[in-house]
Amino acid sequence: MKSTPVSRALVAVAMASAALFTTAGCAVVRDQQSVGAYIDDATLTTRVKAKFAEDRTVSAMAIGVETLNGVVQLAGFAKSAEERMLAERLARDIRGVKDVRNDIIVRN
To answer: Helix or strand or coil: residue 68?
Structure first.
């Protein structure tokens, strides 16, 4: 049986849809939040990480970012208190962030 471009496209769309609905369903069960809220939180996390990557004084690789209901949690290690405070300020400056929990540990 030969596959046509249309049938391959249909299979790809079906697989992508199944993956989206499966992961979205897990998010709703895990965190008791809607799919829209999950996507909003993922967007905020991505924006914060992008700001860290743009700023040379903040180690984007050493600081983890998680977001739940608009509250950003920062965790990991900073080289100085200034880096820790800058990471928090960068996160707070992102539109849509409701609060920031800064659990970054300063390690010399």
So the answer is: strand
Domain-located, residue 24: no
Helix (H) or strand (E) holding 104: strand 99-106
* The token pair that represents 103 in the structure block: 């659990």
Structure tokens at 10: 């249909």
In the chain, the amino acid numbered 34 is: S
Q: Model's pTM, two decimal places?
A: 0.69
Domain ranges, residue 60? 32-106
pLDDT tens profile 51-70: 999 999 999 999 999 999 99
Q: How far apart are CA 32 and CA 93, in angstroms?
A: 26
Tell me how crowded residue 84 is: count the other CB atoms within 10 A of its CB: 21
